[in-house]
Description:
Elements: E1 4-5, E2 9-11, H1 14-34, H2 37-63, E3 66-70, E4 74-76, E5 80-87, E6 91-95, E7 101-103, E8 108-113, E9 118-129, E10 137-153, H3 161-165, E11 168-169, E12 186-191, H4 203-209, E13 213-217, E14 225-228, H5 236-253, E15 259-265, E16 268-274, H6 277-286
Parallel strand pairs: 4-10, 14-15
Antiparallel strand pairs: 1-10, 2-10, 3-5, 5-8, 6-7, 6-9, 9-10, 11-14, 12-13, 15-16
Helix pairs in contact: 1-2, 5-6
Amino acid sequence: MSGRGRVPRPVKATGPVLATLVALTGWAAVAHNSGSGWVQALGCLLAGFAVVGLAGPGIATARLGVRVVANPPDATVGRPVGIEVTATAPGRVAGDGGEPTIVGVGITTVELVLPRRGAVVQVSLSISSAAPFGLLWWRRRVVVPLARPLWVAPLPGRPDPALRAATKPGQGLDAARPRDGWAGESRGVRPYAAGDARRLVHWPATAHHGALMVREVERPDPSVPHLTVALPDDGPAGDEAASRALGTVLELLARTSPILLTTLEPDGPRTGPVAGAADAGRRLARAVAPR
Length: 291
């Protein structure tokens, strides 16, 4: 049920262990001085309970499993996001940057704070247990796959003057370029023309007319501002550039909506309209640097 996990370790064990040793040493002194067999037998029983209470949570933590059953598709760097988890037994779960949450066999929401922009398909969680007696907490980290990919958008930064200055109406909308249909909604079908993208071929209409037909799409308004974002790398510098780009996009959207945004994604360049902060965040979460 859980993902890859590390070996459990006790949490702040010095206090509980010393307290247990002092209590057992005192009991042993009383039992020795009293000479009563039942006192000694009870001391042995208490020692057994203490050992189970101190070491048992390590076994419970090793056997505790967690699974992510639901998570949102979008998040923002540095801001809490909730994921829904279930566990095989009661325990405590904490995500990176989030507060520990008591979980059980039911569905519980755990918060975590993601530090980097991009796609997240698995998360590292800290799970712990103090079963059966609550004397000592043991903890281990597990890597758990998400229910679906989580796209983490950059935190909006200060608008980039250079990027803003490079934004021009209709930039790159040359009428001679192939008609790739990135911009609009389908408004019908028409015969194929040289330069049409293969993905626009409408096969049912082709079979009906006996000639190659393609979907006709709405063309973008050439007056719409067009912004091209190129990241320097996929590390911290790229994240900083994406943050400034998002700030610039939001500044432009405050004046006019939508705008055209060109980014490089893992499967190639993408140009499309962006109408709000959520759209821009998803696009810049997917953006990568040139290889």
